[in-house]
Predict the 3D structure of the following.
Amino acid sequence: MAEIDFDGVTKIFGVGPPAVDHLSLHVDDGEFMVLVGPSGCGKTTALRMLAGLEEITSGTLKIGNAVVNNVLPKDRDVAMVFQNYALYPHMSVAENIGFALKIRGDSKSEIKRKVAEAASILHLSEYLERRPKALSGGQRQRVAMGRAIVRSPQAFLMDEPLSNLDAKLRVEMRLEIARIQRLLGVATVYVTHDQVEAMTMGDRVAVLRDGQLQQVDTPQDLYDHPVNEFVAGFMGSPPMNLVRCRVRAGNDRIEVDFGDQTIELPWHYTSSHELPASGLDVVVGIRPEDVIITDASSPNTIQTRVERREALGAEILVHLSHVDPNTDPSAYAENARADISRKASLVAKMGPRVKITVGDVLSVQLSPEHAHFFDAATGVTLRKRSR
Amino acid sequence: MSAITSNAPRVRRMTLRRRRQLSGFLFALPAIALVIGFIGVPIGQAVYYSFTQWNGLTSTWIGPSTWTQAFHNSNLWTALENNALLLLAVPFALGLPLGIAVLLHQRVAGWRIFRSIYFLPTAISWVVLGLVAERFFAYQGTLNSIIHALGFSHVNTNMLGYESTALSALGITFVFTMIGTNTMLFLTGLATLDPSLEEAARIDGAGRWRIFRSITLPHLSRFIQLAFVMTVIALFSALFSLIFVMTGGGPGYATTTMEFLIYQTGFNQGDFGTAALYGLILFVLTGIVGVVQLRLIGSNE
């Protein structure tokens, strides 16, 4: 068991932009670190450098306290679970799990004991004599896990291990992998593009984009305090609403223009956020669950029209567009019959019993306490670092 | 309308199973006819002619005397022995291509050029290859030039000129003619090997040799079996052009294989009856080899 330390690690394939760009990341002993990001963000490359399957262009990579930049994969004492499991097709489940031990030169009885132990943790004991071909997807996944845990390595590396499973099994194995990791207490780096996996499994989550680390935080902090527009939009499903607004300040009031409507912000925002000067743009972020239906008389509401409605059973996603408050709402209701769907600019997440149909005109409140503000040019959060 | 249909004689419906069997048989019929016409009939003829004195025009029934004579003919045994000795070339005809394929698969520098070079012999007629090999092994040929260039000017080889070495020269030539095909076959096999298996093995602690033995070789086993079958069949039935061009079966009978013996007996000695018998023997031998190979392959999967 050991900690892992990326220090300015960079990978450049041939010519072109770096696949991983000065990545500095520390994984504590026993920690479950999730690397998440869209495809091509460099997360898998980072993991493969850690495994020793890709050379490091520059920077230092440490496992334990040893620099491993030029250490062969076989000497790194890490175990990896591949996306396609990479089970050896001509070996039985027991041989697959015991392969590393056999190479290491463990005695036959020792291998047998360890394989049996790993198999019982993974509920694979009945299948030890089978070939991978005769296993279901979930069982293969377990064998891949077994091959990793049997070695008691310094670190587990997992490359999208659940992406080939169906949805139900994925949820099951998500819990299972997290359970085993906590049971064994081995530092784990887990790569995924699925933000649900990232949120539910990681002790901490590192968000990457274009090879650059955006933010490392606990899942809740990442969700509550994204450092930039990208992280805000990436974490959470459906993603955060990001709307470009104009700031108007003066007379102890600070407001943002939301289309042709205005929302007043609590004054204390000026102390917790570095809001731009009056007349400049800002990107306001509102999570779908923070868009709340109210009656039109409440303050700080905006008028919207329901463009689309997606019932997911436990919740309803409502796609809303702005409505000019100076127009008679009934005119919009007329338009609804023409079934012209305009571009929605807000998504709201509502309870399953809310009675809403397409074309309804709703007053919604964007709870300002939960709003996020990002620089309109750079996308960086305007929240002042208080933590 | 309905009266007409009900009065019409009932077509006796066969069971679904019977109908499928029948249509299966009907579909197979052309193939069966071709097999009988082009394989069965000639074999039958060969059996018949092996009991006759046949000069290509007239045949006289002479009974099994051809058979008894043939088995006392030392040439037959020499040819069989030569065939058996040539089998020693098979491991090389498989091993060399395997090594080459593994190297090319590693994408060594210039692998594209090497791939073309190794595959080139496959596109060249074996007659041409035989001529090249003949020049290579000749007394004033390439091999001796190389040896002399290396500084051994007193050494002179003439492998095709001596009974003791001619068969080896033939075997070496055969290995080279097979390299292209087998290398391609193994490269195809390697291309279907999931690279993450090798990566998994590297992380599991395996070195190069271990990966080759435990991952690559088991994956290639089917391809090796196929290459083995093809190589042995080529050895028994495709060496004719090489022998004809390089040695003409000599010196003496040193490079006469069964295949070449059939040709010599039939066309040089005009004894088609005996040639037919030799053909049968070769057919049976190839058949045995084929069955044994099928068993070996079948037992694995």
